């Protein structure tokens, strides 16, 4: 078992038991601004699996997102019926909103991925991995696209699409294929270079005669007169 495995296990235990170290972190994060650039990831094992590298051109920013429903913006002028509601449905997760919040601040960089770090009574905290496509050290195709977080192309933004919900997971599809190996259909064998005999057709069942019904006899044809 590698070092990253031990790191992930210790962090999971901290989250489950609400360790004192985690509580001190969250108290410190609450006093900081909504988006903060971080020197190093708090969960290095998760960051490395999602594409982070300790190279020039990669940075990590921590974002803070409010819990609960999203309140609508109050209209400055006018009283209209469409404005008489308290909450709005953003149709995306809190993680996707955190990615967009970070990408607005760091507009020259591209969002690769993000992961959950912690939460308290009012906020969720996410760490977002950003890459600068202009740097020569960043040579991955996922950093070339522009505006991934706003177009729903990250893993957090992609989860709200219907296609992902309808189709099963890739791992499940692979497992299903492994259970049922492909067997090609068997072709009928030829006998002495001739075509195989066609199977005999089954005899059609005779129609049942109901009791009491009179069978109609066909009238004989009349002979023409000479």
Structure description:
- With 226 residues, the chain is of the alpha+beta class.
- The protein is 28% helix and 16% strand.
- The model has no long low-confidence stretch (mean pLDDT 81).
Quick one: overall form? elongated
Looking at CATH, the homologous superfamily of the domain at 3-74 and 85-157 is Ribosomal protein L15
Largest sheet: number of strands, sense, barrel closure: 4 strands, antiparallel
Average of per-residue pLDDT values: 81
Kindly name the structural category.
alpha+beta
Q: Could you estimate the helical fraction of the residues in percent?
A: 25-40%
- CATH class assignment of the domain at 3-74 and 85-157: Alpha Beta
Strand proportion: 15-25%
Could you please say which CATH topology of the domain at 3-74 and 85-157 applies here? Ribosomal protein L15e
**Architecture of the domain at 3-74 and 85-157 in CATH?**
3-Layer(aba) Sandwich
Rg estimate, integer Å: 35 Å
SSE string, helices as H and strands as E: HHEHEEEHEEHHH
Low-confidence stretches: none
């Amino acid at each position: 078992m590698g070092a990253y495995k031990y790191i992930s296990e210790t962090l999971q235990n901290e989250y489950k038991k609400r360790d004192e170290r985690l509580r001190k972190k969250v108290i410190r994060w609450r006093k900081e601004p909504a988006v903060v650039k971080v020197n190093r990831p708090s969960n290095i094992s998760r960051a490395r699996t999602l594409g982070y590298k300790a190279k020039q051109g990669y940075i990590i920013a921590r974002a803070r997102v409010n819990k609960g429903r999203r309140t609508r913006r109050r209209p400055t002028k006018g009283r209209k019926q469409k404005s008489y509601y308290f909450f709005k449905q953003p149709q995306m997760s809190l993680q996707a909103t955190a990615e967009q919040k970070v990408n607005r601040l760091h507009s020259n960089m591209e969002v690769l991925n993000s992961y959950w770090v912690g939460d308290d009574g009012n906020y969720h905290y996410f760490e977002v991995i950003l890459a600068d496509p202009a740097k020569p050290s960043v040579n991955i195709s996922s950093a070339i696209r522009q505006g991934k977080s706003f177009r729903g192309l990250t893993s957090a933004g992609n989860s709200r699409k219907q296609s992902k919900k309808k189709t099963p997971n890739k791992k499940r599809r692979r497992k299903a294929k492994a259970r049922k190996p492909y067997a090609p259909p068997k072709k009928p064998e030829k006998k002495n270079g001739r075509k195989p005999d066609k199977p005999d057709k089954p005899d059609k069942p005779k129609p049942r005669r109901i009791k009491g019904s009179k069978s109609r006899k066909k009238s004989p044809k009349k002979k023409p007169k000479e």
